[in-house]
């Protein structure tokens, strides 16, 4: 694998496992509105999508005002339960530190809110590791739109050909493709190797330590 000038990461199921908190928050909102019996696996398969899209998938609701209500309730639940139930994957801190020492720029592109990401990463990583975090509140079009990716490239002053985007889902693969950057798939999440390999990719790997094998 070549060495890139910038490494941009998805967050959920790429850098961190927040599935315990996500499932709890979704379940609290869903059950409050009478949606019972939805399996954890089904909820986890929506991770990486916007909250509105996830609730629509899980409930069948398409009314934008209802989905916005669910989103607001989820955010309140997440204020209580998300950060405490989110854990970086074991290799993440060492990998990001090593990439930073090589002179690379490091960023996160996520549908998750930026403040939520910063809250966790501020507890887990030394200051200055992250050069940019683009969250759901920073864009008008969410992944797989390349808007967040393009914003990061502009702010970091790097070219698409010098950038690697790392993610765990089909949405991430589609985002990289739309932004004309190389894609590395990581198998931390709910998406299979075969699903990721169906898209243009540099490699599909078990964990992020593979980024250090130049």
Automatic annotation (TrEMBL):
<dbReference type="InterPro" id="IPR036412">
    <property type="entry name" value="HAD-like_sf"/>
</dbReference>
<protein>
    <recommendedName>
        <fullName>phosphoglycolate phosphatase</fullName>
        <ecNumber>3.1.3.18</ecNumber>
    </recommendedName>
</protein>
<dbReference type="InterPro" id="IPR041492">
    <property type="entry name" value="HAD_2"/>
</dbReference>
<comment type="pathway">
    <text>Organic acid metabolism; glycolate biosynthesis; glycolate from 2-phosphoglycolate: step 1/1.</text>
</comment>
<dbReference type="GO" id="GO:0008967">
    <property type="term" value="F:phosphoglycolate phosphatase activity"/>
</dbReference>
<dbReference type="InterPro" id="IPR023198">
    <property type="entry name" value="PGP-like_dom2"/>
</dbReference>
<dbReference type="InterPro" id="IPR050155">
    <property type="entry name" value="HAD-like_hydrolase_sf"/>
</dbReference>
<comment type="similarity">
    <text>Belongs to the HAD-like hydrolase superfamily. CbbY/CbbZ/Gph/YieH family.</text>
</comment>
<dbReference type="Pfam" id="PF13419">
    <property type="entry name" value="HAD_2"/>
</dbReference>
<dbReference type="InterPro" id="IPR023214">
    <property type="entry name" value="HAD_sf"/>
</dbReference>
<dbReference type="GO" id="GO:0006281">
    <property type="term" value="P:DNA repair"/>
</dbReference>
<keyword id="KW-0378">Hydrolase</keyword>
<dbReference type="GO" id="GO:0005829">
    <property type="term" value="C:cytosol"/>
</dbReference>
<dbReference type="InterPro" id="IPR006439">
    <property type="entry name" value="HAD-SF_hydro_IA"/>
</dbReference>
């Amino acid at each position: 694998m070549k060495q890139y000038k910038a490494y941009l990461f998805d967050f959920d199921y790429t850098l961190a496992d927040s599935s315990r908190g996500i499932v709890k928050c979704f379940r609290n909102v869903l059950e409050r509105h009478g949606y019972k019996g939805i399996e954890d696996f089904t909820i986890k398969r929506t991770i990486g999508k916007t909250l509105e899209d996830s609730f629509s998938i899980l409930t069948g609701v398409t009314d934008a005002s209802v989905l916005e209500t669910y989103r607001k309730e989820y955010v309140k639940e997440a204020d209580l339960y998300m950060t405490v139930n989110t854990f970086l994957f074991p290799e993440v801190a060492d990998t990001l530190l090593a990439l930073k020492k090589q002179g690379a720029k490091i960023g996160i592109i996520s549908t998750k809110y930026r403040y939520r990401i910063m809250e966790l990463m501020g507890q887990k990583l030394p200051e200055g590791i992250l050069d940019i975090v683009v969250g759901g509140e920073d864009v008008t079009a969410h992944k797989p739109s390349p808007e967040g990716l393009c914003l990061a490239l502009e702010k970091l002053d790097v070219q698409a050909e010098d950038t690697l985007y790392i993610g765990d889902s089909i949405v991430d693969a589609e985002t990289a493709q739309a932004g004309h950057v190389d894609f590395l798939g990581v198998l931390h999440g709910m998406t299979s190797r075969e699903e990721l390999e169906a898209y243009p990719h540099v490699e599909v790997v078990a964990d992020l330590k593979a980024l250090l094998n130049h």
